[in-house]
Amino acid sequence: MPTINFFEEDTTFKPKQKAQLRQWIKETVIAEGFKLKELNYIFCSDAYLLQINQQYLDHDTFTDIVTFDNSEVEGDIVGDIFISIDRIRENGAKFKTGETNELHRVIIHGALHLLGYTDKSVVTKQKMTQKEDEYLAKRNF
């Protein structure tokens, strides 16, 4: 049975509307032709995510998200997605999108990484942003 879990590390943040978030993420995975097995979203602080970034990716920078693909079978989605709530709050204010919209964009961004989308070049970043916008528009909550 597919599961989507939400955890906190070094923060007290808890997402609202968990059932709707789970359904939206699941529908996104299915729409892209994949099977959802297990997806863990870990909401954390900047300091916690910086440590993950340094330890596992050898990057010494703050970021809003780090995604780990743990899938062993092609077409199955199994992964851990770490999201900095500090970055979400700051970027929501900076880009005038609001905290909830920024959170949802980053949540779906992580799922899209597991679905094979990248943002390493201008072209792939544009495609990923278009997909983010597409799935954000499908939210019904």
From TrEMBL:
Keywords: Cytoplasm, Endonuclease, Hydrolase, Metal-binding, Nuclease, Ribosome biogenesis, rRNA processing, Zinc. The gene is ybeY. One of its GO terms (molecular function) is zinc ion binding. This is Endoribonuclease YbeY. It holds the Pfam family YbeY. Binds 1 zinc ion. InterPro entries: MetalPrtase_cat_dom_sf_prd, YbeY, YbeY_CS. PROSITE patterns: UPF0054.
